[in-house]
């Protein structure tokens, strides 16, 4: 009997005992291609020598110093690295231990910013349906995933949700991308006006929607319009790049491809590549200066923020990405993976959509392609695909069910940035077999 309560109370999981390159190995000696990077985390794969070496070095130097007493050279260097590569305008980094902590901190920064500016009436957060921002209470409140929130509703702050920019599900037949971008962004302006422009703190969105809707990129110009609306009403734009950021879509930050700079940006997952738990909030000079001129500090903090081991891992991961020019591989292998997915699935009767950017892709399953009718959520096709994939030594990230009124099943692919062509081909081959087998196993 396991005393570890992690996933479901009774699930039997393989025991991971090793990892090298893009593979994980279980206690029975079976190898799995980590085509999901865990949950879009393992950007350098497993056991990377540069990170191992950096962690050994840091452990021999200093593992931990509390931020109430010290800063550390390694945390300072990581912050310098993050800001050196951040979109112009983001000038400070706040280091935490993961994605939810980053989102919590960003929301509190947004609120404190307006308090410092003498606008305490500003209190509303607007976010989007079919989104996920973490499992701590404020992040959960911001996420638009009703089934995750249901049990905890009495504990959640009020958050207001609009539809995401999700072309496959929400772009009307015959509607141009431009018109759809305008309509999707207008939902934000309508919501701000409904709530009262002087009462809204921030709009929070994933630049490319992650697991909840499945690697959904925005249509062109959506975020430029969102940025303009936020500016019009003095509302802060928070982009959550915990999953889609740090190189996953082919640029270091996904918002670079949208031509917008947020006021606050959250990153995690690929920041430390899974070698240590770490996340960060990158914030604008204006927000930092409001704290500096006001109460003098951001009223927040965690015991492990800026942890030296975590900073060492993240710095080694980020320096390796630059040194080995891995973003070029993300673009090249992303294109190759996309091409192979399209060859394998474009005519598949039950694949409705293949979407994503860089090494961040999803395939969505449908019962009927022309009507986009999903499978009955009770069949849990996504879970069956994951099971069949695991049986074939392949990790894919499943999601499905009814999320804020939209039904659907998809799996997410987010392999390490070091993946090679032959490995990407193997991913698609195993995935194809897993999908066919899962669908064949559905009740007639
Ligand atoms: N934000 C997004 C977009 C995420 O995908 C996730 C996790 O999947 C989080 C926040 C929460 O991150 P963590 O699980 O590290 O707390």
UniProtKB/TrEMBL annotation:
Keywords: Amino-acid biosynthesis, Aminotransferase, Arginine biosynthesis, Pyridoxal phosphate, Transferase. GO terms for cellular component: cytosol. Coiled coil: none annotated. The keyword Transferase applies. GO terms for molecular function: pyridoxal phosphate binding; transaminase activity. SUPFAM superfamilies: PLP-dependent transferases. It holds the Pfam family Aminotran_3. The keyword Transferase applies. Transmembrane segments: none annotated. InterPro entries: Aminotrans_3, Aminotrans_3_PPA_site, PyrdxlP-dep_Trfase, PyrdxlP-dep_Trfase_major, PyrdxlP-dep_Trfase_small. Its cofactor is pyridoxal 5'-phosphate. It comes from the Bacteria. One of its GO terms (biological process) is L-arginine biosynthetic process. Belongs to the class-III pyridoxal-phosphate-dependent aminotransferase family. NCBIfam families: PRK07483.1. This is Aspartate aminotransferase family protein. It comes from Labrys okinawensis.
